[in-house]
Write a structure and sequence with these properties.
Radius of gyration: 19 Å
Helix content: 40-55%
Shape: globular
Structural class: alpha/beta
Number of strands: 8
Order of helices and strands: HEHEHEHEHEHHHEHEE
Strand content: 5-15%
Number of helices: 9
Length: 310
């Protein structure tokens, strides 16, 4: 094992230890009245994030496209004494999001934490098909965006501020060594936070989808690994930075902090169970960002509780 690997292994051991240490009373800004919504929470990372948040004493709303699957999922957690509830939600369906929003407001008065975990991937191993590119972009990027837009008005007033955590991926890094966006002009535009716009991000993903439809995407300079998934997460990362800037001028008590993180290559259905990271490890940084006390961290990208470059 090289020096870099040893350093990373030591860091992961430290995180494992930190997970066993409870937050002190002065750090806990949350209570039973704190509401967290976790999309795609019926399995994998979303389920584990829900479990860990509930274990810390937060009331969790686990959402699932299939209501019956959600009900089965929360039974395990409820039997363990955790305060977890479920509701049907399809982030591809605007009416489903509206119905969920109305139910959430009526029953809980809103939320404090939103974890955008729901996502899809259709490539495994060395596969790089774009056959499902439209669904991947629609779910991972536009679905996440719809949820953020719908939940911001429902964020409760709190001295600690609202929290939005977007589950993303290093595969979507603009300047990643192995999977970077090769279109220099577009990369520069997406890197420029001051001039970044929603129209620019949407335009990039729409240009990719047009090339998919035309059969010309392979010459477009897009990420070379898991291209559709990588681009969907690149868009999520860019949108996270954009929203952090837009939300930065909200008054005290109404502030909303938004960040994204890479859980790693986790052993879940999304990776065909071929990952090298446990769900407990994969969920950790998402939970940590959701609960981080008294720190105005926003518009950043994390992995293993450390900030990484976009």
């Amino acid at each position: 094992m090289g020096h870099k690997e040893k350093k990373k292994d030591k860091h992961l051991q430290q995180i494992s230890l930190l997970r066993t240490i409870p937050y002190s009373d002065h750090q806990r800004w949350w209570s039973k009245e704190t509401i967290a919504v976790v999309t795609g929470g019926n399995r994998g990372i979303g389920f584990e994030i829900s479990r860990q948040l509930a274990d810390h004493g937060v009331t969790v709303i686990l959402t699932s496209r299939d209501a019956s699957v959600g009900v089965e999922s929360i039974k395990v957690l409820q039997e363990g004494g955790l305060d977890v509830h479920c509701h049907e939600l399809d982030i591809l369906d605007s009416s489903s999001i509206t119905q969920f929003s109305e139910w959430l407001k009526e029953n809980y008065g809103g939320l404090n934490i939103l974890v955008n975990n729901a996502g899809v991937n259709f490539n495994f191993g060395s596969d790089n098909s774009v056959e499902n590119a439209h669904k991947v972009i629609e779910t991972n990027y536009y679905g996440t965006k719809r949820m953020i837009e719908a939940m911001i008005p429902l964020m409760k007033v709190s001295p600690a501020g609202g929290r939005i955590v977007n589950v993303s991926s290093r595969l979507g890094r603009l300047n990643g060594k192995r999977n970077r966006l090769e279109n220099d002009a577009l990369r520069e535009q997406l890197s420029d936070v001051e001039n970044l716009t929603e129209e620019l991000i949407d335009g990039a993903v729409n240009a990719f989808l047009q090339q998919v439809d035309d059969g010309t995407w392979e010459s477009g300079g897009w990420p070379i690994r898991f291209t559709d998934y990588s681009l969907s997460k690149l868009a999520v990362n860019a949108y996270t930075r954009l929203m952090a800037k837009k939300l930065s001028d909200r008054p005290d008590g109404e502030k909303i902090f938004i960040n994204c993180y890479c859980p790693g290559w986790v052993k879940t259905a999304l990776t065909g169970y071929a990952g090298s990271v446990s769900v407990e490890q994969g969920a950790d940084t998402g939970v940590w960002l959701s609960l981080i006390p008294e720190q105005a961290i926003t518009g950043m990208f994390f992995a293993e509780r450390r900030e990484i470059n976009f």
